[in-house]
Amino acid sequence: MRYSLEQYDKHGFLKSPKWLWLGWLFMAKAWVVFVVAGASRESGSKILNIVYPDHSMLYLGLAMGIPSIALMWLVSLRSPDRHWVNRIVSWGKAITLLTVISQFGQTLYHVYLEHGAFSWANGSTMVALLWFGIYVLQSKSVSDSLKTPAST
């Protein structure tokens, strides 16, 4: 037995690692900013203008965060009776890696727009995406947690 019994949910699915959840949350950062801006009524538009001065980048970030949010939601809906949910979650590793690559490309485009000038926000985003992509690609626990267990 590779994992302890506490690492499985009530349906027999391996729970996703906390680092995977944190990475998905990081990739949905536009949604986090959007919700925080919506929750603070008076200063919501100021927050959006500070973090996303170009509103098209906010919309692009919201669109790129949808796969992460969908995977977070679908992982919690897994059960032996929901075959379509289990199938989508089993594609989670590939979906996550494609989202990491697209967000990395978007960040490279931001660097291009700034004419290669260094920015801590872009640099730290690229490093975090690179580390998260390597983690998802190499981690056995991520692969095992997104698999559908064989029914007996």
UniProtKB/TrEMBL annotation:
Source organism superkingdom: Bacteria
A family per Pfam: DUF2919
Keywords: Membrane, Transmembrane, Transmembrane helix
Name of this chain's protein: DUF2919 domain-containing protein
Annotated TM spans: 20-37, 57-76, 88-105, 117-137
UniProt keyword Transcription regulation, yes or no: no
